[in-house]
Amino acid sequence: MNELPLIQHLIDGQLVAGGTRSVDVFNPATGQAEKRVLLADKHTVEQAIASAHAAYPAWRATPPLKRARVMSKLKTLLEDNAERLCALLTAEHGKVLSDSMGELQRGIENVEYASYAPELLKGEHSKNVGPSMDSWSEFQPLGVTAGITPFNFPVMVPLWMWPMAIACGNTFVLKPSERDPSSALLVAELALQAGLPPGVLNVVNGDKEAVDALLTDKRVQAISFVGSTPIAEYIYATGCAHGKRVQALGGAKNHAVVMPDADIANAVNALMGAAYGSCGERCMAIPLVVAVGDATADAVLAGLKAEIAKMKVGPGTDSANDMGPLVTKAHLDKVKGFVDQGVQEGATLVVDGRNVQVAGHESGYFMGACLFDHVKPGMKIYQEEIFGPVLGVVRVKTLQEGMDLINAHEYGNGTCIFTRDGEAARYFSDHILVGMVGVNVPLPVPVAYHSFGGWKRSLFGDLSAYGPDAVRFYTKRKTITQRWPSAGVREGAVFSFPTNR
Amino acid sequence: MNELPLIQHLIDGQLVAGGTRSVDVFNPATGQAEKRVLLADKHTVEQAIASAHAAYPAWRATPPLKRARVMSKLKTLLEDNAERLCALLTAEHGKVLSDSMGELQRGIENVEYASYAPELLKGEHSKNVGPSMDSWSEFQPLGVTAGITPFNFPVMVPLWMWPMAIACGNTFVLKPSERDPSSALLVAELALQAGLPPGVLNVVNGDKEAVDALLTDKRVQAISFVGSTPIAEYIYATGCAHGKRVQALGGAKNHAVVMPDADIANAVNALMGAAYGSCGERCMAIPLVVAVGDATADAVLAGLKAEIAKMKVGPGTDSANDMGPLVTKAHLDKVKGFVDQGVQEGATLVVDGRNVQVAGHESGYFMGACLFDHVKPGMKIYQEEIFGPVLGVVRVKTLQEGMDLINAHEYGNGTCIFTRDGEAARYFSDHILVGMVGVNVPLPVPVAYHSFGGWKRSLFGDLSAYGPDAVRFYTKRKTITQRWPSAGVREGAVFSFPTNR
Amino acid sequence: MNELPLIQHLIDGQLVAGGTRSVDVFNPATGQAEKRVLLADKHTVEQAIASAHAAYPAWRATPPLKRARVMSKLKTLLEDNAERLCALLTAEHGKVLSDSMGELQRGIENVEYASYAPELLKGEHSKNVGPSMDSWSEFQPLGVTAGITPFNFPVMVPLWMWPMAIACGNTFVLKPSERDPSSALLVAELALQAGLPPGVLNVVNGDKEAVDALLTDKRVQAISFVGSTPIAEYIYATGCAHGKRVQALGGAKNHAVVMPDADIANAVNALMGAAYGSCGERCMAIPLVVAVGDATADAVLAGLKAEIAKMKVGPGTDSANDMGPLVTKAHLDKVKGFVDQGVQEGATLVVDGRNVQVAGHESGYFMGACLFDHVKPGMKIYQEEIFGPVLGVVRVKTLQEGMDLINAHEYGNGTCIFTRDGEAARYFSDHILVGMVGVNVPLPVPVAYHSFGGWKRSLFGDLSAYGPDAVRFYTKRKTITQRWPSAGVREGAVFSFPTNR
Amino acid sequence: MNELPLIQHLIDGQLVAGGTRSVDVFNPATGQAEKRVLLADKHTVEQAIASAHAAYPAWRATPPLKRARVMSKLKTLLEDNAERLCALLTAEHGKVLSDSMGELQRGIENVEYASYAPELLKGEHSKNVGPSMDSWSEFQPLGVTAGITPFNFPVMVPLWMWPMAIACGNTFVLKPSERDPSSALLVAELALQAGLPPGVLNVVNGDKEAVDALLTDKRVQAISFVGSTPIAEYIYATGCAHGKRVQALGGAKNHAVVMPDADIANAVNALMGAAYGSCGERCMAIPLVVAVGDATADAVLAGLKAEIAKMKVGPGTDSANDMGPLVTKAHLDKVKGFVDQGVQEGATLVVDGRNVQVAGHESGYFMGACLFDHVKPGMKIYQEEIFGPVLGVVRVKTLQEGMDLINAHEYGNGTCIFTRDGEAARYFSDHILVGMVGVNVPLPVPVAYHSFGGWKRSLFGDLSAYGPDAVRFYTKRKTITQRWPSAGVREGAVFSFPTNR
């Protein structure tokens, strides 16, 4: 064990050790621990915060255009290092390489948007709010900001946060997931290479001890979090109780409604990726199909079964595979447990992927796609976020019945509808209590120049992640109101013709 | 006691009783209890919330232009009822009538801004985020929202909140200060008259029991608060712990810097109003002057003394008076106690207004203007918010020394600088850790089309009050991503020529 | 003739005579001349321009909020005087009273939008475009601006122009149509009553002599025009050749596409109003239906015939009537001539309204609804703007065929599609070369907080009418870049401690 | 002569010949013709337009993000090829290499801003403009657009135009100056390399024949021009008469005001670069100093004389030089003629640079810095744009007198004021009739994320160059208003449960 490579922290531009505890980092495709990651203690986190605090004044004073150009440069470096980054990502998370590439691409788009900072930071200027009095707003940085990110998008979710925070003039401390920490660390090193001064971005690996140090330190002005709802609530309550601004994104249970007039083949294709891509370990995955009418349900199920039969499960490094392993052994067991429970609760298990074995990778955390019919709102597999390759079909008679279900669910992250009908789409979009809505788009993740945010217990805070809302989240408003006394140099009373004095 | 008029709640469009407790409402100019106000119990607050909840769906569906027009109409009604409103305001708060009129005018400007809702609620539309795929954002209302407002601007602060909340499509529960509740209630009645459907705006009078009911009820989506910092922190922590979005505005200790090149006469005039207007009971009042150079300090003090000598203290209903009574006996005692302590701590009391008596109003809560020289950062009168007619002069040698003081203070609400020099003004505005900055403007309260917010412990939350930030605070973002399946009616595959089927 | 009331000009806040020529103003429902209107000569126009020029500096210096409030006040006055205004409008134009009321309402919405000026005039402020250097934009007024408006919306189209021009700080000279000049004049008088200072808004009645005076006077900075395309081209070329900014809106020939899946009853209802409302004398009227498929065409024609049979033609003052007279005898003859020609060219005249008589109003300029089937692109009734109650149905086989027709037409003002299909609507909206598109909305006139503008030969200029574009049209950008020299009062080199000098 | 390299056109992605006429391209530092450039005839221009027209549909349909990425890529290529580009620029224009580099950098910033297109092209979306009716705006490209650019910024001014035009979805035909055409051509080749499809950007070299072909061709939708005022007027009038949108930027005569309280050393340094940089061949150069007070004038003149004495004139390729040659022999003669005339008119020629010789470059078009005192408004050197290294000092008694001069001048491009006084700066900025204002900034060229535009006869059109205004100039607004018929698939009336039919 001692011989496993040790993943450190990045503080003040240097890779440094810190903390006495460490945990294994596994390759989920082999089940082998291949690295260890140090877990920062409070002191180490405070070092990172101190570095960010010290770097702040100079970075704040750097013109936005220059800050933005570091982001442009980083974008190019990320493209140049894509292969290396995605290999790391797949080795620790398990997702197939093409999926890693897709994740990276989404992350790059956030870096790209942060590079628009000079435009995004414009304040509002009002001439003559009163006679000869003007007023304008400036959006100034906050100081030290922090992000706590989940295992499922180890490259992308950090890039939702710090590029914009930093482009706005803040400095940043990132605590990525300890399960797959390497890719975020590599991205941070590329950012230094792109010209970020030491201390502007720091990465600490760790667990709850590190999180709590960030939540309670007075120098940290804002916290962005993405993870599960119970932790999101804890982060929001604790961070706010310490006077910070917090945005905490939690869990999801996204429903896809399929209408009788939908293009079924199209919908089935879309659902396959949305349900099983990345093993369903996405907060914008679709684990539930709401089929309007039994005929629709039957057609969708038939389509899904046929597609699932063609799916290949195996290590993410093999580009022939559609689905890699789950992230950990514990999570694999939990997901299988959900499937067991679904069977017990009376849902019909149409496709059972629980016992799938991948030859040569018997210790990998693999399972196959599972498909349930007759899922009902009372069931646990309906209510809880499974975060695995398990798709359930709920049968309803009308769109309204389906919408009532969605609106009653505790989560409101994403949803979609498949239909050709303009009225159905508009009614659905308008009345559904969900923050991100797709019309014939299964994973309606907003593009980087819009913002990401769920409703209900999927997001705590008032501003969404990335996009325009992130600019507002990572800045504070300063309003200046100005008028000038008369009888100055213009009127000649005091200063003019100084040689005459 | 039974014979005093009883101030009730406004729920579902009706004035109703609710709660078993009540407290006196005093006229601070006479010291007499003239009314009593009912204190809502939890059940009463829940009734108000239920009314707001029931009114929400129809109000949300009302087009923004129609909602905005209620605000236009209300604006006219407020102008028409200005005299009556200000009489109520002065009778319960004590401020002089012209000041009440100024407060009302500022409130009307917020109603006016809310009437721009169709413009303010525009979302962002992106064509072709991908091939034939579009995405746009909508800013939808939250549902039931609530506001808790302080005694010092009983008309204006509620108007910072609910007109915009309601123009955005929310419904609202207002809990005004129980010390001077009548004017907010009258404004709410005018809003009904302007066309607001019953239940869209509810007013509950009360104290901590009512506040806690609002903070913990699941139906309340957002809380706006203005008051003191300890309560603001409590509101922020408690509201957030219950998953709500919260903006909580707290205390202030606003410094005015006077530079050696300032127009001193102009500065003195400005400071008189800023320090003693409304007895200093304003979160944007100026209780501290930072004079750069002893010559500046001496000149400012001389000017202030001369002006204070001309000031008239007396009941707010007499238009000859400059300053009315403080709001309560307890507050009067507290403010005098601060002055006593300042003397003890070694500040020089240049003008002592502690024993001012107003003939014929001996029981009124009057005191005169107090002016200290040689106030030092270690003193309590420097550190704490006095909220009374007490102005202190701090002497510094340089602007930087003055700015360091301001930046070290726990509050960061407002500040101003008096100078002719562009560079000094720009340096000050840029580097001061205060949210609202005036350049030769003593009370830099942003106009209604900008937003109001302090920094540091003067505001908890990420969005400021009123103006553009309020639009974002009172709405949640929904992002829709849409594409349409081909082979529909356009290509003729399915529906065209239906008569041939 | 001498006894007819004489309509004058409004210059510098006064009704004044000017010019030696005059023409009759007829009541089209009776065919009687009831008033005469003076036609301004060059000198009179120059007087109006001079008045606007003199009023400009003070108006420009009036804070935007104050300018905006005149618009709020005017809105209320327009609502209060609606009946009187609409009576004038109907008496001179002929349209039925409910239609006049609709026109006025649309005009009021433009006044309302102009009252948002403080928000709309915000410039962009950039901190630190370089080290300690800031830059911001201001949108300053142009000076004297002018508008030339058509007979068909005598109240609304002037209100598209001058309220925003004036709210932006300009002064204005309006030349309304000489055929129905009274209502615009009354609105201008109400604006004075609302608080507009004399000279800020001037109205000159006149013909080409007045137009040319406006187009060539150096003091006039910008011209807005709405009328026919040949005149729009003349205005655009002439105004631009004199160095002015010009927006010139011309003719239209709006097609409504009806798809096989449309709700036909709904479409027919919508088309009735769009084709025959205000006798088709609207640039957003629908004179052409493009029916996709013969079955669709047959169903639409059947529906239209049935509805036309129920229509009532008669004086606009009688609220039982659906359609009033055309505006002049000459125009009536021209429209009938188009119908004659359509018959000659081979279109099928399904309903013939040419000989409709209104009992008791035999000299009124009435005709009934005409409906053609089998209209073809080569026909004159297809190509030219008729501006009368004449609707033609064009039969096509596919949506693409219909869109090709529309895209080949010289005009591109408005268009609409009736369908349930999201894909058809999106494809149509995207690819149609028309500026204003309705989906199941027959007259897609943008609301006042969006902008109005056609494409192709329907609009000359880069900015559309009213809404956000009007703000940009009526202002010029000023960009200020500012930094301050050091060694000023802040550092103490020059001014501090002045008593020591 | 035949052996000189021949500069061709870039049409449809290929370098092609076209036209029978050609002219010499000189190296102004040597006076030698080193290349010849082909002058496109009408037919060649039409080929370029046809190529742009053919490339349009596919480019328009390319998502904005992809278009923007070509700009990001181009930015990198421009940085990588900076040396080669600047060598070309200096060889044909003459300016010193560091100045070429500065010009390129400014051009790159415009490319950078164009890469923000996804943000800049967002339209406005309004939910519920009426019940269940929505409306939104799209900013669609125009089609084929064109630019005509001057000799003095052969790299930068083209980059003001086509990157944004193309990022907005248009295709483009550029006609650069025939005096120094090579660098613009190279930039266009780099753009192809960055991924621009053939035909999206075409470059035609030429003279008036080419210009007229662009101005009159129906397929060209918009013209951007930068050059002298008489040509700008011709372009504006002719382009508008052909129905196009046109923005035409003309001449300038920028005044710098120096106040008595200015930091004189700072002002002198700033003026040296502003007056003599690039030989004054800039529309934002400062050829006139307005000194307030004789003491100020004397101090400024003394400073300028001392600095001029240190200036080095010589070939731009030698980095020791401050000023290179003028662009052509004819222009050199013209500038010297202006100086002669100034002497004749009675201005005092304080420094005479007319006879400066550069050893080894006796045929180069060199002259030295000239400095006049006592320039008066009536003189030709005051009124006309010299575009050479000639600076004149005008003496006034007050700021107001200086401002009256500036406001009376026919041009209003740029201006600046040197002062420490906030009030003087604000009064000047507000009341000066000039589009770009500097406060202690001598050449207030707005940064790329603001827009460039003069007032009065310095710009014809309503929208400024580059920045936000360019987005609006290169797009046309389309407004879509949408509602959906009920009784569709949602309510089940027509399509639901299709298997039951």
Automatic annotation (TrEMBL), chains A, B, C, D:
Q: InterPro entries in the record, alphabetically? A: Ald_DH/histidinol_DH, Ald_DH_C, Ald_DH_N, Aldehyde_DH_dom, MeMal-semiAld_DH
Keywords from the named record: NAD, Oxidoreductase
Query: Which Gene3D superfamilies is this protein grouped with?
Result: Aldehyde Dehydrogenase, Chain A, domain 1, Aldehyde Dehydrogenase, Chain A, domain 2
Biological-process GO terms, alphabetical: L-valine catabolic process; thymine catabolic process
GO molecular function per UniProt: methylmalonate-semialdehyde dehydrogenase (acylating, NAD) activity
Which Pfam family, giving just one, matches this sequence? Aldedh
UniProt-listed CDD domains:
ALDH_F6_MMSDH
Q: Where is the Aldehyde dehydrogenase domain?
A: 20-480
Q: Which residues form a coiled coil?
A: none
Documented EC number(s)? 1.2.1.27
What PANTHER family does the entry give?
MALONATE-SEMIALDEHYDE DEHYDROGENASE
NCBIfam families linked: MMSDH
Name assigned to this protein: methylmalonate-semialdehyde dehydrogenase (CoA acylating)
Provenance organism: Albidiferax ferrireducens (strain ATCC BAA-621 / DSM 15236 / T118)
